[in-house]
Specification:
The chain has eight helices and twelve strands. It is an alpha/beta fold. The strands form two sheets. Strands 4-3-6-1-2-5 form a six-stranded antiparallel sheet, covered by helices on one side. The longest helix has 21 residues.
Length: 319
Amino acid sequence: MQASLRMGNNEEEDTEETWLQLRPVEPSPSQCCGSGCSPCVFDLYHRDLARWEAARARNDKSLLSGKQSQSCPSKLSPETFLAFRISAMDKLTKDTYHVRFALPGNSLLGLHPGQHLVLRGIVDDLEIQRAYTPISPANAEGYFEVLIKCYQTGLMSRCVKSWRVGDIAFWRGPFGSFCYKPNKYGELLMLAAGTGLAPMVPILKSITDSADDETFVTLVCCFKTFEGIYLKTFLQEQARFWNVRTFFVLSQETSPEQLPWSYREKTHFGRLDQDLIEELVGCCRRKPFALVCGSPKFTEDMAKYLLCAGLTKNSYFLF
């Protein structure tokens, strides 16, 4: 009898230890990209924790898998990281990379213009996640592309700098509440700083690729120098369309004589300030809806300037 009791106690201890090993691990702060994704890694943790608690209460491990099997996901998912192979990688500036990832066959990524993905990286055994918006057209077959700026002390930057063609990176998504619809707005006023240009690119391309979309676009690109402007050829091509205007704001340039002739009349030196925003809003050909993407400070300033220029909070979107 005593032997049976000891065996029973051991089995209970083994079962308890097994359940504790199956308990979801709470994410570290570095695993959150800070972009307001839904679901966030913490949302997934709380979902899995509730599932674990229910399964443990019923002593039924089959409940841990949930209703959807994640053993072999075949489509992009906000909850599951998928592996994508790097097929090309170009260094655009001293700190910015243009990276292409391969998709199976001629498949599509499945994002709407303006939506973003979350990239996972591992640095010194620490998992980190960051959000990036593909710049490739929504209808691109067999690939997608992203712009990634690297920072001297950035953890994800260390991952990106180590990438080589043929390497694998892990992404999940899509995320983002702004989904562009043709002809919904009379004119889009796009305000982009640095890699904040990224979400504007697929939206702009979707407009100029469609003969039925008559939305006007005023794109304002903010960079430090002329040499630092991304995607110059693409931007010049887009500016040739009847409904597209492009302007540049260069904070560390002072002389138009240093610029090509085609840029001189559409470049402002200094910063995108209140006066310039009011001028841009005033010269829009139709009632504008503004899209803003850049650093947190840039985004905060633009929101304030747009309100002062007469736009309402329903008349702009901050990426």
